[in-house]
Amino acid sequence: MKLLSDVGEDALIAALIAHMPQFDAKSAQPSDDCAVLSQADFYLTDLLLKTDAMIEGIHFTQEMSARAIGWKAIARVSSDFAAMGGQPHSFMVTVALPASTSLAWIEEVYQGMADCMHAFGGKLVGGETSRMPLGAPCVFSISALGTVPKNRAMLRSTAKPGDVIFVTGKLGGSFAGKHLSFSPRIEHGRWLLDHFRVTAMMDLSDGIAKDLPRMAQASDCGFQLDLTAIPFTTGCGLNEALHDGEDYELLLAVAPSDAGNLLEVWGVRFPELPLTRIGHFVKAGSGDVLSGGWDHFPAV
Amino acid sequence: MKLLSDVGEDALIAALIAHMPQFDAKSAQPSDDCAVLSQADFYLTDLLLKTDAMIEGIHFTQEMSARAIGWKAIARVSSDFAAMGGQPHSFMVTVALPASTSLAWIEEVYQGMADCMHAFGGKLVGGETSRMPLGAPCVFSISALGTVPKNRAMLRSTAKPGDVIFVTGKLGGSFAGKHLSFSPRIEHGRWLLDHFRVTAMMDLSDGIAKDLPRMAQASDCGFQLDLTAIPFTTGCGLNEALHDGEDYELLLAVAPSDAGNLLEVWGVRFPELPLTRIGHFVKAGSGDVLSGGWDHFPAV
Questions:
Q1: Which residue of A has its CA nearest to B3?
Q2: If I label A300, which of A84, A271, A288, B224 is the partner at 20 to 30 A Cα–Cα?
Protein backbone atom coordinates (compact mmCIF):
# COMPACT_ATOMS: atom_id res chain seq x y z
CA MET A 1 0.00 0.00 0.00
CA LYS A 2 1.35 3.40 -1.00
CA LEU A 3 1.67 5.87 1.90
CA LEU A 4 2.02 9.64 1.84
CA SER A 5 5.62 9.10 2.93
CA ASP A 6 6.20 7.39 -0.46
CA VAL A 7 5.15 10.39 -2.60
CA GLY A 8 6.24 14.03 -2.60
CA GLU A 9 3.95 16.86 -1.63
CA ASP A 10 3.58 18.07 -5.22
CA ALA A 11 2.65 14.58 -6.49
CA LEU A 12 0.17 14.23 -3.65
CA ILE A 13 -1.56 17.49 -4.55
CA ALA A 14 -1.66 16.59 -8.24
CA ALA A 15 -3.28 13.23 -7.44
CA LEU A 16 -5.84 14.76 -5.10
CA ILE A 17 -7.10 17.54 -7.33
CA ALA A 18 -7.11 15.57 -10.58
CA HIS A 19 -10.85 14.85 -10.49
CA MET A 20 -12.15 17.94 -8.69
CA PRO A 21 -14.41 20.49 -10.38
CA GLN A 22 -12.14 23.48 -11.01
CA PHE A 23 -12.37 26.82 -12.75
CA ASP A 24 -10.65 27.15 -16.10
CA ALA A 25 -7.08 28.10 -15.33
CA LYS A 26 -7.04 31.50 -17.01
CA SER A 27 -4.75 33.24 -14.59
CA ALA A 28 -3.67 31.88 -11.22
CA GLN A 29 -2.60 28.23 -10.97
CA PRO A 30 -2.88 25.96 -7.93
CA SER A 31 0.78 26.79 -7.27
CA ASP A 32 0.19 30.56 -7.00
CA ASP A 33 0.09 32.17 -3.57
CA CYS A 34 -3.67 32.67 -3.60
CA ALA A 35 -6.61 31.69 -5.75
CA VAL A 36 -7.84 34.62 -7.84
CA LEU A 37 -11.56 34.87 -8.57
CA SER A 38 -12.30 37.22 -11.43
CA GLN A 39 -15.51 39.16 -10.99
CA ALA A 40 -17.72 40.49 -13.77
CA ASP A 41 -16.27 43.35 -15.81
CA PHE A 42 -18.06 46.14 -13.96
CA TYR A 43 -16.65 45.09 -10.59
CA LEU A 44 -13.65 47.05 -9.34
CA THR A 45 -11.75 44.27 -7.63
CA ASP A 46 -10.90 40.64 -8.00
CA LEU A 47 -11.15 38.37 -4.99
CA LEU A 48 -8.24 36.44 -3.51
CA LEU A 49 -8.76 33.29 -1.48
CA LYS A 50 -6.16 31.63 0.70
CA THR A 51 -6.07 28.97 3.40
CA ASP A 52 -3.15 28.09 5.63
CA ALA A 53 -2.76 25.77 8.62
CA MET A 54 -0.53 25.85 11.71
CA ILE A 55 -0.05 22.58 13.55
CA GLU A 56 1.45 22.00 16.99
CA GLY A 57 4.65 19.98 16.74
CA ILE A 58 5.09 20.96 13.05
CA HIS A 59 4.72 24.75 12.83
CA PHE A 60 4.89 25.69 16.51
CA THR A 61 5.33 24.31 20.03
CA GLN A 62 3.78 25.21 23.38
CA GLU A 63 7.16 26.65 24.41
CA MET A 64 6.80 29.53 21.94
CA SER A 65 5.00 32.75 22.79
CA ALA A 66 1.26 32.17 22.35
CA ARG A 67 0.79 35.71 21.12
CA ALA A 68 3.52 35.23 18.50
CA ILE A 69 1.89 32.00 17.32
CA GLY A 70 -1.35 33.91 16.68
CA TRP A 71 0.52 36.71 14.94
CA LYS A 72 2.25 34.22 12.65
CA ALA A 73 -0.98 32.44 11.72
CA ILE A 74 -2.51 35.66 10.36
CA ALA A 75 0.78 37.09 9.01
CA ARG A 76 1.46 34.01 6.83
CA VAL A 77 -1.83 34.42 5.00
CA SER A 78 -1.40 38.18 4.75
CA SER A 79 2.02 37.58 3.18
CA ASP A 80 0.36 35.55 0.42
CA PHE A 81 -1.97 38.44 -0.33
CA ALA A 82 1.03 40.79 -0.36
CA ALA A 83 2.72 38.50 -2.88
CA MET A 84 -0.07 39.21 -5.38
CA GLY A 85 -0.28 42.94 -4.68
CA GLY A 86 -3.46 42.39 -2.66
CA GLN A 87 -4.78 43.18 0.79
CA PRO A 88 -6.53 41.07 3.43
CA HIS A 89 -10.25 41.74 3.77
CA SER A 90 -11.84 38.99 5.92
CA PHE A 91 -10.52 36.11 8.01
CA MET A 92 -12.08 32.88 9.22
CA VAL A 93 -10.27 31.12 12.05
CA THR A 94 -10.76 27.41 12.73
CA VAL A 95 -9.24 26.02 15.92
CA ALA A 96 -9.22 22.34 16.82
CA LEU A 97 -8.10 21.82 20.40
CA PRO A 98 -8.06 19.09 23.04
CA ALA A 99 -10.33 19.89 26.02
CA SER A 100 -7.18 19.99 28.17
CA THR A 101 -6.05 23.23 26.47
CA SER A 102 -5.63 26.24 28.77
CA LEU A 103 -8.16 29.01 28.16
CA ALA A 104 -5.56 31.69 28.90
CA TRP A 105 -3.22 30.21 26.28
CA ILE A 106 -5.76 30.19 23.47
CA GLU A 107 -6.90 33.71 24.40
CA GLU A 108 -3.29 34.85 24.01
CA VAL A 109 -3.10 33.20 20.59
CA TYR A 110 -6.22 35.09 19.49
CA GLN A 111 -4.77 38.32 20.86
CA GLY A 112 -1.77 37.79 18.58
CA MET A 113 -4.10 37.25 15.63
CA ALA A 114 -5.92 40.48 16.50
CA ASP A 115 -2.56 42.33 16.72
CA CYS A 116 -1.72 41.33 13.15
CA MET A 117 -5.15 42.27 11.78
CA HIS A 118 -4.93 45.66 13.47
CA ALA A 119 -1.46 46.19 11.98
CA PHE A 120 -1.97 44.92 8.44
CA GLY A 121 -5.71 44.92 7.83
CA GLY A 122 -8.53 42.41 7.60
CA LYS A 123 -11.31 41.57 10.02
CA LEU A 124 -12.68 38.42 11.56
CA VAL A 125 -15.93 37.23 9.94
CA GLY A 126 -16.26 33.65 11.07
CA GLY A 127 -14.65 30.49 12.22
CA GLU A 128 -15.14 27.42 14.26
CA THR A 129 -13.97 25.84 17.49
CA SER A 130 -13.79 22.07 17.44
CA ARG A 131 -12.59 19.47 19.88
CA MET A 132 -9.52 17.29 19.22
CA PRO A 133 -9.02 13.93 20.90
CA LEU A 134 -6.98 14.20 24.12
CA GLY A 135 -3.26 14.05 23.42
CA ALA A 136 -3.69 15.26 19.83
CA PRO A 137 -1.94 18.46 18.69
CA CYS A 138 -3.64 21.86 18.47
CA VAL A 139 -4.47 22.86 14.89
CA PHE A 140 -5.23 26.34 13.56
CA SER A 141 -6.60 26.69 10.05
CA ILE A 142 -6.85 30.25 8.74
CA SER A 143 -8.92 31.07 5.67
CA ALA A 144 -9.08 34.51 4.23
CA LEU A 145 -10.61 36.62 1.52
CA GLY A 146 -8.50 39.38 0.03
CA THR A 147 -8.93 41.96 -2.68
CA VAL A 148 -6.75 43.17 -5.52
CA PRO A 149 -7.48 45.73 -8.26
CA LYS A 150 -9.26 44.04 -11.14
CA ASN A 151 -7.06 42.04 -13.54
CA ARG A 152 -3.92 43.15 -11.69
CA ALA A 153 -3.12 40.22 -9.37
CA MET A 154 0.59 39.44 -9.72
CA LEU A 155 1.41 35.83 -10.50
CA ARG A 156 4.55 33.75 -10.26
CA SER A 157 4.11 32.31 -13.74
CA THR A 158 4.67 35.43 -15.82
CA ALA A 159 8.42 36.10 -15.63
CA LYS A 160 10.30 36.29 -18.97
CA PRO A 161 13.86 35.34 -19.87
CA GLY A 162 16.02 38.41 -19.27
CA ASP A 163 13.91 39.74 -16.38
CA VAL A 164 15.92 40.84 -13.36
CA ILE A 165 15.24 39.06 -10.05
CA PHE A 166 14.89 41.04 -6.82
CA VAL A 167 14.27 40.10 -3.23
CA THR A 168 13.15 42.28 -0.31
CA GLY A 169 14.71 42.20 3.15
CA LYS A 170 17.34 39.75 4.36
CA LEU A 171 17.12 35.99 4.17
CA GLY A 172 17.78 33.19 6.65
CA GLY A 173 17.52 32.95 10.39
CA SER A 174 13.88 31.93 10.68
CA PHE A 175 14.75 29.23 13.23
CA ALA A 176 16.22 31.89 15.54
CA GLY A 177 12.78 33.44 15.94
CA LYS A 178 12.24 35.60 12.86
CA HIS A 179 9.53 33.19 11.68
CA LEU A 180 7.33 34.29 14.61
CA SER A 181 7.63 38.04 14.27
CA PHE A 182 7.87 38.93 10.59
CA SER A 183 5.86 41.66 8.88
CA PRO A 184 3.87 40.73 5.78
CA ARG A 185 4.89 43.03 2.91
CA ILE A 186 1.34 44.28 2.18
CA GLU A 187 2.31 47.92 1.69
CA HIS A 188 5.30 47.05 -0.49
CA GLY A 189 3.37 44.63 -2.69
CA ARG A 190 0.64 47.14 -3.31
CA TRP A 191 3.13 49.91 -4.01
CA LEU A 192 4.88 47.73 -6.58
CA LEU A 193 1.55 46.98 -8.25
CA ASP A 194 0.66 50.67 -8.40
CA HIS A 195 4.04 52.00 -9.58
CA PHE A 196 6.01 49.37 -11.48
CA ARG A 197 5.53 46.78 -14.18
CA VAL A 198 6.45 43.81 -12.03
CA THR A 199 6.42 40.78 -14.34
CA ALA A 200 6.12 38.11 -11.62
CA MET A 201 5.98 37.99 -7.83
CA MET A 202 5.63 35.52 -4.93
CA ASP A 203 6.49 35.38 -1.26
CA LEU A 204 9.36 33.29 0.09
CA SER A 205 7.93 30.69 2.43
CA ASP A 206 10.02 27.56 1.82
CA GLY A 207 13.46 29.09 1.19
CA ILE A 208 14.72 30.74 -1.97
CA ALA A 209 16.43 27.47 -2.96
CA LYS A 210 12.99 25.97 -3.34
CA ASP A 211 10.89 29.01 -4.23
CA LEU A 212 13.03 30.53 -6.99
CA PRO A 213 13.03 27.26 -8.99
CA ARG A 214 9.24 27.22 -8.52
CA MET A 215 8.86 30.68 -10.00
CA ALA A 216 11.21 29.74 -12.85
CA GLN A 217 9.33 26.53 -13.60
CA ALA A 218 5.92 28.22 -13.41
CA SER A 219 7.20 30.86 -15.84
CA ASP A 220 8.87 28.31 -18.13
CA CYS A 221 12.28 29.92 -17.54
CA GLY A 222 15.64 29.02 -16.12
CA PHE A 223 17.54 31.40 -13.82
CA GLN A 224 21.03 32.58 -12.98
CA LEU A 225 21.56 33.50 -9.36
CA ASP A 226 24.41 35.70 -8.10
CA LEU A 227 25.17 33.87 -4.86
CA THR A 228 27.46 36.68 -3.69
CA ALA A 229 24.52 39.10 -3.84
CA ILE A 230 22.07 37.21 -1.62
CA PRO A 231 21.28 39.44 1.39
CA PHE A 232 21.45 37.43 4.56
CA THR A 233 20.33 38.10 8.11
CA THR A 234 23.05 39.02 10.61
CA GLY A 235 24.38 35.82 12.14
CA CYS A 236 23.45 33.73 9.10
CA GLY A 237 25.46 32.51 6.15
CA LEU A 238 24.56 31.76 2.55
CA ASN A 239 23.37 28.26 3.40
CA GLU A 240 20.77 29.54 5.89
CA ALA A 241 19.70 32.28 3.49
CA LEU A 242 19.05 29.71 0.76
CA HIS A 243 17.46 26.91 2.76
CA ASP A 244 15.98 27.99 6.12
CA GLY A 245 12.63 29.02 4.66
CA GLU A 246 9.94 31.15 6.33
CA ASP A 247 11.48 34.42 5.20
CA TYR A 248 8.14 35.88 4.07
CA GLU A 249 9.95 38.37 1.88
CA LEU A 250 8.90 39.21 -1.69
CA LEU A 251 10.63 37.62 -4.66
CA LEU A 252 9.93 39.56 -7.84
CA ALA A 253 10.95 40.06 -11.45
CA VAL A 254 11.03 43.19 -13.59
CA ALA A 255 12.12 43.89 -17.15
CA PRO A 256 15.85 44.81 -17.37
CA SER A 257 14.96 48.33 -18.53
CA ASP A 258 13.03 48.94 -15.27
CA ALA A 259 15.57 47.48 -12.87
CA GLY A 260 17.72 50.56 -12.24
CA ASN A 261 14.76 52.87 -11.80
CA LEU A 262 13.09 50.48 -9.37
CA LEU A 263 16.18 50.28 -7.16
CA GLU A 264 16.46 54.05 -7.05
CA VAL A 265 12.82 54.84 -6.28
CA TRP A 266 12.54 51.98 -3.79
CA GLY A 267 15.48 53.32 -1.79
CA VAL A 268 13.71 56.65 -1.41
CA ARG A 269 10.26 55.21 -0.64
CA PHE A 270 11.30 52.33 1.65
CA PRO A 271 14.70 53.23 3.12
CA GLU A 272 14.18 50.78 5.99
CA LEU A 273 13.72 47.68 3.81
CA PRO A 274 16.52 46.58 1.47
CA LEU A 275 15.68 45.59 -2.10
CA THR A 276 18.44 43.50 -3.67
CA ARG A 277 19.12 42.42 -7.23
CA ILE A 278 20.10 38.76 -7.01
CA GLY A 279 20.09 37.42 -10.57
CA HIS A 280 18.02 37.13 -13.72
CA PHE A 281 15.84 34.70 -15.60
CA VAL A 282 17.14 32.86 -18.68
CA LYS A 283 15.64 30.50 -21.23
CA ALA A 284 14.15 27.26 -19.93
CA GLY A 285 16.70 24.46 -19.79
CA SER A 286 19.67 26.72 -19.14
CA GLY A 287 21.00 28.48 -16.06
CA ASP A 288 21.60 27.28 -12.50
CA VAL A 289 20.21 24.36 -10.54
CA LEU A 290 19.11 24.82 -6.93
CA SER A 291 17.41 22.37 -4.65
CA GLY A 292 16.51 21.96 -1.01
CA GLY A 293 14.00 23.73 1.17
CA TRP A 294 10.97 22.35 2.91
CA ASP A 295 8.67 19.51 1.73
CA HIS A 296 5.83 18.33 3.97
CA PHE A 297 5.86 14.83 2.49
CA PRO A 298 9.36 14.30 1.07
CA ALA A 299 9.39 11.37 -1.37
CA VAL A 300 11.96 8.76 -0.31
CA MET B 1 -5.69 27.17 35.50
CA LYS B 2 -8.95 27.26 33.55
CA LEU B 3 -9.16 24.62 30.81
CA LEU B 4 -11.45 24.44 27.79
CA SER B 5 -13.20 21.59 29.59
CA ASP B 6 -14.26 24.15 32.26
CA VAL B 7 -16.12 26.49 29.87
CA GLY B 8 -18.86 25.87 27.32
CA GLU B 9 -18.32 26.25 23.57
CA ASP B 10 -20.36 29.46 23.40
CA ALA B 11 -18.40 31.06 26.27
CA LEU B 12 -15.14 30.01 24.63
CA ILE B 13 -16.08 31.66 21.35
CA ALA B 14 -17.24 34.84 23.09
CA ALA B 15 -13.92 35.08 24.95
CA LEU B 16 -11.84 34.47 21.84
CA ILE B 17 -13.49 36.99 19.54
CA ALA B 18 -13.92 39.76 22.11
CA HIS B 19 -10.85 41.71 20.98
CA MET B 20 -10.76 40.84 17.27
CA PRO B 21 -11.31 43.47 14.56
CA GLN B 22 -14.81 42.73 13.26
CA PHE B 23 -17.24 44.29 10.82
CA ASP B 24 -20.18 46.17 12.28
CA ALA B 25 -22.85 43.58 12.87
CA LYS B 26 -25.48 44.99 10.54
CA SER B 27 -26.94 41.67 9.42
CA ALA B 28 -25.40 38.28 10.13
CA GLN B 29 -24.09 37.54 13.63
CA PRO B 30 -21.26 35.15 14.57
CA SER B 31 -23.99 32.61 15.36
CA ASP B 32 -25.47 32.65 11.83
CA ASP B 33 -24.70 29.79 9.47
CA CYS B 34 -22.31 31.84 7.32
CA ALA B 35 -20.71 35.24 7.40
CA VAL B 36 -22.38 37.63 4.95
CA LEU B 37 -20.22 40.24 3.23
CA SER B 38 -22.29 43.03 1.73
CA GLN B 39 -20.87 44.37 -1.50
CA ALA B 40 -21.30 47.88 -2.87
CA ASP B 41 -24.80 48.78 -4.03
CA PHE B 42 -24.20 48.15 -7.73
CA TYR B 43 -23.06 44.57 -7.14
CA LEU B 44 -25.65 41.87 -7.76
CA THR B 45 -24.72 39.44 -5.03
CA ASP B 46 -23.52 39.34 -1.47
CA LEU B 47 -20.74 36.96 -0.52
CA LEU B 48 -21.07 34.17 2.02
CA LEU B 49 -18.07 32.78 3.86
CA LYS B 50 -18.02 29.57 5.85
CA THR B 51 -15.42 27.27 7.37
CA ASP B 52 -15.98 23.83 8.83
CA ALA B 53 -13.63 21.13 10.13
CA MET B 54 -13.84 17.33 10.23
CA ILE B 55 -11.57 15.55 12.69
CA GLU B 56 -10.75 11.86 12.90
CA GLY B 57 -12.04 10.38 16.14
CA ILE B 58 -14.57 13.22 16.55
CA HIS B 59 -16.46 13.56 13.25
CA PHE B 60 -15.38 10.36 11.50
CA THR B 61 -13.34 7.18 11.89
CA GLN B 62 -11.20 5.19 9.47
CA GLU B 63 -13.87 2.47 9.52
CA MET B 64 -16.30 4.71 7.62
CA SER B 65 -16.37 4.91 3.83
CA ALA B 66 -13.63 7.30 2.74
CA ARG B 67 -15.77 8.56 -0.11
CA ALA B 68 -18.64 9.30 2.28
CA ILE B 69 -16.28 11.22 4.58
CA GLY B 70 -15.33 13.47 1.67
CA TRP B 71 -18.96 13.91 0.66
CA LYS B 72 -19.88 14.93 4.19
CA ALA B 73 -17.06 17.47 4.45
CA ILE B 74 -18.36 19.39 1.43
CA ALA B 75 -22.06 18.75 2.11
CA ARG B 76 -21.87 20.26 5.62
CA VAL B 77 -20.61 23.57 4.29
CA SER B 78 -23.06 23.50 1.39
CA SER B 79 -25.87 23.00 3.91
CA ASP B 80 -24.87 26.25 5.63
CA PHE B 81 -25.13 28.09 2.33
CA ALA B 82 -28.53 26.47 1.74
CA ALA B 83 -29.64 27.72 5.16
CA MET B 84 -29.21 31.32 3.98
CA GLY B 85 -30.74 30.80 0.54
CA GLY B 86 -27.28 30.80 -1.02
CA GLN B 87 -25.19 28.60 -3.26
CA PRO B 88 -21.60 27.34 -3.04
CA HIS B 89 -19.16 29.04 -5.42
CA SER B 90 -15.58 28.13 -4.41
CA PHE B 91 -14.01 25.68 -1.99
CA MET B 92 -10.60 25.54 -0.30
CA VAL B 93 -9.64 22.20 1.21
CA THR B 94 -6.99 21.94 3.92
CA VAL B 95 -5.84 18.45 4.91
CA ALA B 96 -3.46 17.72 7.75
CA LEU B 97 -2.32 14.10 7.69
CA PRO B 98 0.32 11.89 9.29
CA ALA B 99 2.84 10.61 6.71
CA SER B 100 1.56 7.09 7.46
CA THR B 101 -1.76 7.86 5.74
CA SER B 102 -2.62 5.67 2.74
CA LEU B 103 -2.60 7.51 -0.57
CA ALA B 104 -5.56 5.46 -1.86
CA TRP B 105 -7.60 6.41 1.21
CA ILE B 106 -7.08 10.16 0.86
CA GLU B 107 -7.75 9.96 -2.89
CA GLU B 108 -11.10 8.32 -2.09
CA VAL B 109 -11.91 11.11 0.36
CA TYR B 110 -11.22 13.70 -2.36
CA GLN B 111 -13.37 11.73 -4.80
CA GLY B 112 -16.25 12.04 -2.33
CA MET B 113 -15.64 15.80 -2.12
CA ALA B 114 -15.72 15.99 -5.91
CA ASP B 115 -18.99 13.98 -6.00
CA CYS B 116 -20.68 16.55 -3.77
CA MET B 117 -19.38 19.54 -5.74
CA HIS B 118 -20.60 17.95 -8.98
CA ALA B 119 -24.01 17.33 -7.42
CA PHE B 120 -24.60 20.62 -5.58
CA GLY B 121 -22.24 23.14 -7.15
CA GLY B 122 -19.00 24.88 -6.26
CA LYS B 123 -15.48 24.34 -7.50
CA LEU B 124 -12.07 23.83 -5.92
CA VAL B 125 -9.91 26.95 -5.95
CA GLY B 126 -7.24 26.22 -3.40
CA GLY B 127 -6.12 24.42 -0.33
CA GLU B 128 -3.18 22.98 1.47
CA THR B 129 -1.69 19.67 2.43
CA SER B 130 0.20 19.67 5.69
CA ARG B 131 1.87 17.00 7.77
CA MET B 132 0.57 15.92 11.19
CA PRO B 133 2.81 14.27 13.79
CA LEU B 134 2.69 10.46 13.57
CA GLY B 135 -0.19 9.05 15.59
CA ALA B 136 -2.18 12.30 15.41
CA PRO B 137 -5.65 12.29 13.84
CA CYS B 138 -6.40 13.34 10.25
CA VAL B 139 -7.98 16.79 10.04
CA PHE B 140 -9.93 18.29 7.13
CA SER B 141 -10.78 21.98 7.20
CA ILE B 142 -13.10 23.17 4.44
CA SER B 143 -13.49 26.86 3.67
CA ALA B 144 -15.90 28.11 1.09
CA LEU B 145 -17.20 31.20 -0.62
CA GLY B 146 -20.86 31.29 -1.57
CA THR B 147 -23.19 33.78 -3.18
CA VAL B 148 -26.69 34.98 -2.39
CA PRO B 149 -28.81 37.66 -4.12
CA LYS B 150 -27.96 41.06 -2.71
CA ASN B 151 -29.54 41.92 0.67
CA ARG B 152 -31.52 38.66 0.65
CA ALA B 153 -29.43 36.31 2.84
CA MET B 154 -31.78 34.63 5.30
CA LEU B 155 -30.77 34.90 8.94
CA ARG B 156 -31.76 33.04 12.08
CA SER B 157 -32.27 36.23 14.06
CA THR B 158 -35.31 37.65 12.27
CA ALA B 159 -38.24 35.47 13.38
CA LYS B 160 -41.17 37.27 15.04
CA PRO B 161 -43.60 36.12 17.73
CA GLY B 162 -46.50 34.41 15.97
CA ASP B 163 -44.41 33.09 13.05
CA VAL B 164 -45.04 29.46 12.20
CA ILE B 165 -42.08 27.04 12.47
CA PHE B 166 -41.42 24.48 9.73
CA VAL B 167 -38.83 21.79 9.22
CA THR B 168 -37.87 19.90 6.06
CA GLY B 169 -37.34 16.14 5.88
CA LYS B 170 -37.33 13.74 8.79
CA LEU B 171 -35.23 14.07 11.92
CA GLY B 172 -33.04 11.65 13.88
CA GLY B 173 -31.03 8.64 12.91
CA SER B 174 -27.78 10.36 12.02
CA PHE B 175 -25.76 7.76 13.96
CA ALA B 176 -27.17 5.01 11.76
CA GLY B 177 -25.41 6.50 8.74
CA LYS B 178 -27.59 9.37 7.56
CA HIS B 179 -24.91 11.84 8.66
CA LEU B 180 -22.61 10.54 5.92
CA SER B 181 -25.01 10.62 2.98
CA PHE B 182 -27.33 13.60 3.39
CA SER B 183 -28.17 16.08 0.64
CA PRO B 184 -27.69 19.77 1.39
CA ARG B 185 -30.97 21.62 0.72
CA ILE B 186 -29.48 24.12 -1.75
CA GLU B 187 -32.34 23.98 -4.22
CA HIS B 188 -34.99 24.23 -1.51
CA GLY B 189 -33.33 27.14 0.27
CA ARG B 190 -33.04 29.10 -2.94
CA TRP B 191 -36.61 28.31 -3.93
CA LEU B 192 -37.85 29.58 -0.58
CA LEU B 193 -35.84 32.78 -1.00
CA ASP B 194 -37.28 33.34 -4.48
CA HIS B 195 -40.92 32.50 -3.72
CA PHE B 196 -41.76 33.09 -0.05
CA ARG B 197 -41.29 35.64 2.66
CA VAL B 198 -39.33 33.39 4.98
CA THR B 199 -38.75 35.38 8.16
CA ALA B 200 -35.84 33.28 9.51
CA MET B 201 -33.93 30.15 8.48
CA MET B 202 -31.03 27.93 9.60
CA ASP B 203 -29.89 24.36 9.07
CA LEU B 204 -30.17 21.71 11.78
CA SER B 205 -26.68 20.54 12.65
CA ASP B 206 -26.75 19.98 16.43
CA GLY B 207 -30.29 18.64 16.90
CA ILE B 208 -33.54 20.61 16.97
CA ALA B 209 -33.44 20.57 20.79
CA LYS B 210 -30.35 22.76 20.57
CA ASP B 211 -30.91 24.60 17.29
CA LEU B 212 -34.52 25.76 17.78
CA PRO B 213 -33.66 27.48 21.09
CA ARG B 214 -30.74 29.12 19.25
CA MET B 215 -33.05 30.54 16.58
CA ALA B 216 -35.48 31.69 19.25
CA GLN B 217 -32.77 33.38 21.29
CA ALA B 218 -31.19 35.03 18.24
CA SER B 219 -34.65 36.36 17.30
CA ASP B 220 -35.49 37.42 20.86
CA CYS B 221 -38.48 35.07 20.90
CA GLY B 222 -39.73 32.06 22.81
CA PHE B 223 -41.31 29.09 21.04
CA GLN B 224 -44.02 26.48 21.43
CA LEU B 225 -43.23 23.14 19.87
CA ASP B 226 -45.84 20.52 18.97
CA LEU B 227 -43.91 17.40 19.95
CA THR B 228 -46.52 15.15 18.31
CA ALA B 229 -45.82 16.81 14.96
CA ILE B 230 -42.04 16.28 14.80
CA PRO B 231 -41.31 14.14 11.72
CA PHE B 232 -38.88 11.39 12.60
CA THR B 233 -36.83 9.00 10.51
CA THR B 234 -38.10 5.40 10.29
CA GLY B 235 -36.60 3.44 13.17
CA CYS B 236 -36.22 6.53 15.36
CA GLY B 237 -38.35 7.95 18.13
CA LEU B 238 -38.95 11.48 19.35
CA ASN B 239 -35.84 11.46 21.52
CA GLU B 240 -33.54 10.74 18.55
CA ALA B 241 -35.36 13.32 16.42
CA LEU B 242 -34.78 15.99 19.06
CA HIS B 243 -31.23 15.18 20.12
CA ASP B 244 -29.23 13.15 17.58
CA GLY B 245 -28.07 16.17 15.58
CA GLU B 246 -26.55 16.17 12.08
CA ASP B 247 -29.94 16.25 10.37
CA TYR B 248 -28.87 18.99 7.90
CA GLU B 249 -32.51 19.83 7.26
CA LEU B 250 -33.84 23.39 7.07
CA LEU B 251 -35.57 25.00 10.06
CA LEU B 252 -37.59 28.03 8.98
CA ALA B 253 -40.22 30.51 10.04
CA VAL B 254 -42.95 32.24 8.03
CA ALA B 255 -45.74 34.65 8.95
CA PRO B 256 -48.97 32.82 9.95
CA SER B 257 -50.77 34.24 6.91
CA ASP B 258 -48.24 32.52 4.59
CA ALA B 259 -48.14 29.14 6.31
CA GLY B 260 -51.03 27.42 4.54
CA ASN B 261 -49.99 28.61 1.11
CA LEU B 262 -46.39 27.50 1.67
CA LEU B 263 -47.46 23.97 2.63
CA GLU B 264 -49.64 23.66 -0.42
CA VAL B 265 -47.16 24.97 -2.99
CA TRP B 266 -44.26 23.06 -1.41
CA GLY B 267 -46.14 19.77 -1.75
CA VAL B 268 -46.52 20.34 -5.49
CA ARG B 269 -42.97 21.58 -6.08
CA PHE B 270 -41.09 19.12 -3.82
CA PRO B 271 -43.28 16.04 -3.43
CA GLU B 272 -40.30 13.94 -2.38
CA LEU B 273 -39.30 16.06 0.62
CA PRO B 274 -41.76 16.54 3.49
CA LEU B 275 -42.27 20.01 4.95
CA THR B 276 -43.81 19.88 8.41
CA ARG B 277 -45.35 22.55 10.64
CA ILE B 278 -43.98 21.87 14.12
CA GLY B 279 -44.87 24.90 16.23
CA HIS B 280 -44.68 28.66 16.40
CA PHE B 281 -42.70 31.47 17.98
CA VAL B 282 -44.04 33.37 20.99
CA LYS B 283 -42.86 36.36 23.01
CA ALA B 284 -39.47 36.11 24.68
CA GLY B 285 -39.68 34.64 28.17
CA SER B 286 -42.72 32.50 27.46
CA GLY B 287 -43.21 29.16 25.72
CA ASP B 288 -41.35 25.85 26.01
CA VAL B 289 -37.88 24.98 27.26
CA LEU B 290 -35.72 22.52 25.38
CA SER B 291 -32.15 21.52 26.00
CA GLY B 292 -29.64 18.92 24.92
CA GLY B 293 -27.82 18.42 21.63
CA TRP B 294 -24.13 18.59 20.90
CA ASP B 295 -21.52 20.83 22.57
CA HIS B 296 -17.84 20.51 21.64
CA PHE B 297 -16.66 21.81 25.01
CA PRO B 298 -19.52 21.12 27.46
CA ALA B 299 -19.09 23.21 30.63
CA VAL B 300 -18.99 20.99 33.72
A1: A102
A2: A288
